[in-house]
What we know:
Blueprint: E1 2-8, E2 13-19, E3 25-30, H1 39-46, E4 77-80, E5 86-87, E6 92-99, E7 102-109, E8 114-122, E9 128-146, E10 151-152, E11 159-166, E12 169-177, E13 181-186, E14 197-203, E15 214-219, E16 225-231, E17 237-243, E18 252-256, E19 260-265, H2 268-284, E20 297-299, H3 301-304, H4 310-323, E21 327-330, H5 360-368, E22 372-377, E23 381-382, H6 387-391, E24 409-410, H7 416-432, E25 437-440, H8 451-467, E26 472-475, H9 485-488, E27 493-495, H10 502-512, E28 521-525, H11 539-547, E29 550-553, H12 562-583, E30 586-589, E31 597-603, E32 609-616, E33 638-643, H13 658-661, E34 664-667, H14 668-673, E35 685-693
Parallel strand pairs: 20-21, 20-29, 21-22, 22-25, 25-26, 26-27, 27-28, 28-29
Antiparallel strand pairs: 1-2, 2-3, 4-5, 4-9, 6-7, 7-8, 8-9, 9-18, 9-19, 10-17, 11-12, 11-14, 13-16, 14-15, 15-19, 16-17, 23-24, 30-31, 31-32, 32-35, 33-34, 33-35
Helix pairs in contact: 7-8, 10-11, 11-12
The structure holds alpha-D-galactopyranose.
The site of alpha-D-galactopyranose has 12 residues, from loops.
Amino acid sequence: MTQCWRLDDERQTLALASSGGRCPQVVYWGAPLPAGEDLTAITRISTLDVTGGMLDENPDLSLCPEASRTFPGQPGLIVRDQDGTPLLPKFHLDGVEVRPDGLTVICKDQGNRLTYTADFALDPETHVIAMTAALSADRPLHLHWLAAPVLPAPQHANDMIDFAGRWCGEFQMNRTAWSPGIRYRENRTGRTGHEHFPGLIVPCQAATNTSGEAFAFHYGWSGGHRMIAEELPDGRRQIQFGHAARMETSPSTEFRTAPLYAVYSSDGLNGCAVSFQRHLRDRVVTWTKPGRPRPVHYNCWEAVYFAHDLPVLKDIATRAAKLGAERFVLDDGWFGQRDDDTSSLSDWEVDPRKYPDGLGPLIDYVHGQGMSFGIWFEPEMINPNSNIHRAHPDWALGSEDQVLGRQQKALNMALPEVRDFLYERISKLLSTHPIDYIKWDHNRVLPMPDAAQTRGSYALIDRLRADFPDVEIESCASGGGRIDFGILSRTQRVWLSDSNDALERLKMQHNASIFMPSAVTGSHVGPRKCHTSGRVLDIEFRAWVAAQRHMGFEMDPRELTDHEARVLADVTAWWKDNRDWMYTADILRLDASDPSVIAEQQQARDGSRFVVFSGKSGTSPQIAPRPLRLTRLEPDAQYEISLRNRASATVLSRGNLALKEGPLTLTGAALMHNGVTLPWSFPESMWVLEGKRL
Ligand code: GLA
């Protein structure tokens, strides 16, 4: 007998079936099926034949594939009994609880006395399905691996795309061909990591940014994940996501995965991106003041590093405010004896040498300039050269002889006394000063992965959030080393990268937008000569790249020429004029036919306006720009388009282009099918095209 269930919204149907009382499997996921569809027939039409060299029946690709059923691939659960004996689970369906937009599957293994639960929650507005798996037992077990509910991947896909990265080079997309065997990614660094962003896209044949079918996945966990994308010998494919293996270091009676967020799109990668952007912004992030405009940031790191000097900081603050900054963030260097990165982490007390009267005078001054005040912490870390390490060497995680990272160790966040100490130090500062923002850093990997560490960090942040609900937190880890929906359910911004090189940012932002809206993505205008790449970039390019996301400045404003200050103030004013609608806008990646163009269209939720940022990352192979086709417009509507920065056309753009003269009106159909031909431009520059529906 086969029992079936389905989850539906306007975009998709996900159908589950259990045959012979076994653990259910996803038998269909994709475009909506008619209400009357016979799901048993779907199950039967999808059943694989059996030929030579096969078992007499193909084992299910269930929500938790079981080794005990001769499943020919990676199992969804690897667990040992109290005494270390490997268990071979064999689940039977115990029940399915169906809710309006979700369901919970409960399976039992009587022999091993285990309960497996898979939960699905479909958000009918964002179209994201959040899934978790849990395991419980009547005695403590050792968990090696528990996958979030396992999904089949489409067989009409040739490739998969996942995300790698490094310091100053986050969100690099890698495309690999499906082939028999496993694409296995495992991050054992104990934090989300630059190297392995926990995301995957499976684009079906011929899918692009703007068209075709695609499936996308994100695992919302900050402790390091494991991903398996496996093609079985029979051709079926499975996707597994979970915590990195063996990171549950203590036996327990209960285990639970983080949520796996999954999206199906019938309109290209943008369908996935828009779903994730909206879901993150509108469902996952807990905003301190929902709807409040995002303030323009000023961060002093690349201006002064550790050399904090009150008159200099005041001068910088005055200039930043004049340029349009609304929040001043005091970075590393204000505490302990922190004159470089060799000491003082965990000595979270204001350095009296640099601030003889405490932080009050600086904060008052910053407020006087009309800005709010934010401050840097790196709570999970400790330098061996610190008072706290001298007093509590046992608070550090890992062995005495471990290799340090940036001269520091991590604190053991599983220890309640460590969390209490950090809570006490941070809350003392927050309750005695008007501080509305923390840049929360995490600059080294852990000596070993440990889920208790991540849970400890989450608990500390949750406690601070509960007691200081108006304080926003930015997640930073040497730039983008801790970006995921788990940390973003307790923070409101990410520091995407330590690279303030606009050219590098242009690309990173473009790729990161598959998962993140601009509201949470910090982007700062860096120094004229970038400190991490040595590249010299024009102020206009730097300013517009920052204006694509949550804008800020991070250079020493004293280096700005009058011209640079004028451009920066102008672009910042533009950003402020537009930030309200851009806050909820969808970021749509455009399919530029010129490989040197990285372009996106940010479109208001009601479709009434948009802005296209067309960045030039290099010199084009052909002489003249190719037309850039826009997307998701109403074909019959008229749109007025105008080039915001047309005055920036160089003398080498010699033609009489209408866009250089003023606005033009065209239909959505023309803009989408014919496209827009922009003026010739230098590499490392950006055209900004504004559009409104008439
Ligand atoms: C990390 C961050 C930087 C800065 C420094 C301070 O590298 O990513 O933005 O805050 O730490 O030490």
